[in-house]
């Protein structure tokens, strides 16, 4: 069991190309070229980033039942700062130092203004807490994303191999291989691929 203490780095970077941050058969998270970012570190090793740019989240949260498909896919434009922890080896070479023009494109006067904004998001999600890294967000295949929503709260996406959890203001979606649970504002659907149960809230 490994517990990690995270902190924000001082370096401000920009993406040199569009990056696919996470991709499985369930969905994808992407961020465009020229997004700005601050690394998140633990023991001086990079473990993730806080990004601000133009990104998107696509997620299949549809559950098949005997009465047909329930739910709808998530299609979310990400234009506010968001947090990512997880596998970063594939994207680490896709950054360069950000300059004043890069910051202005995202609405910041200087690096400190972006660091302050990033720090607010970091403190909301991580703060001074220690995080357990067993099979998630260490040197394995796990990812965590924290994405601000229109209510001013954080939607959270956690993925590790075939397991996925997505918690948003209007739904909770949990998937592991052939087992799926979807909770909406009106009902809860439980499915194992062959049978399904629907409960009204």
Q: How would you describe the overall organization of this protein?
A:
The chain has 201 residues and is mainly beta. The protein has one domain. The chain contains two helices and 21 strands. It has helices at residues 100-105, 111-125, and strands at 3-5, 7-8, 13-15, 19-24, 27-31, 36-42, 45-52, 55-59, 63-65, 68-70, 74-78, 82-86, 95-97, 130-132, 142-148, 154-160, 163-167, 172-176, 179-183, 187-191, 196-200. Strands 2, 3, 6, 7, 12, 13, 15, 16, 17, 18, 19, 20 and 21 form a 13-stranded antiparallel beta sheet that branches. A four-stranded antiparallel beta sheet has the order 4-5-8-11, with no helix packed on it. It has a two-stranded antiparallel ribbon with strand order 1-14. The mean pLDDT is 89.
Offer a concise description of the structure.
The chain is mostly beta strands and 201 residues long.
Portion in helices: 10-25%
Query: What is the count of β-strands?
Result: 21
Gap from first CA to last CA: 37 Å
Number of helices: 2
Question: Whole-number average pLDDT?
Answer: 89
Task: Provide the fold topology.
Blueprint: E1 3-5, E2 7-8, E3 13-15, E4 19-24, E5 27-31, E6 36-42, E7 45-52, E8 55-59, E9 63-65, E10 68-70, E11 74-78, E12 82-86, E13 95-97, H1 100-105, H2 111-125, E14 130-132, E15 142-148, E16 154-160, E17 163-167, E18 172-176, E19 179-183, E20 187-191, E21 196-200
Antiparallel strand pairs: 1-14, 2-6, 3-6, 3-13, 4-5, 5-8, 6-7, 7-12, 8-11, 9-10, 12-15, 15-16, 16-17, 17-18, 18-19, 19-20, 20-21
Structural features:
single chain, 201 residues, mainly beta, 13-stranded antiparallel β-sheet, four-stranded antiparallel β-sheet, 50% strand, elongated
């Amino acid at each position: 069991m490994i517990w990690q203490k995270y902190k924000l780095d001082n370096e401000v970077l920009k993406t040199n190309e569009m990056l696919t941050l996470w991709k499985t058969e369930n969905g994808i998270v992407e961020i465009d070229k020229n997004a700005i970012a601050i690394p998140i570190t633990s023991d001086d090793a990079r473990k993730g980033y806080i990004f601000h740019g133009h990104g998107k989240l696509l997620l299949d949260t549809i559950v098949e039942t005997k009465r047909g498909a329930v739910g709808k896919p998530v299609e979310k434009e990400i234009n506010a700062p968001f947090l990512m922890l997880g596998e970063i080896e594939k994207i680490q070479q896709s950054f360069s130092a950000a300059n004043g023009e890069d910051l202005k494109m995202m609405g910041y006067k200087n690096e400190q203004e972006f660091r302050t904004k990033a720090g607010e998001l970091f403190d909301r999600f991580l703060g001074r807490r220690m995080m357990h890294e067993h099979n998630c967000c260490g040197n394995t295949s796990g990812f965590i994303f924290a994405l601000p929503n229109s209510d001013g709260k954080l939607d959270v996406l956690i993925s590790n191999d075939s397991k996925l959890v997505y918690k948003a203001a209007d739904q909770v979606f949990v998937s592991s291989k052939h087992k799926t649970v979807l909770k909406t504002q009106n009902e809860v659907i439980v499915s194992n691929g062959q049978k399904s149960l629907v409960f009204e809230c």
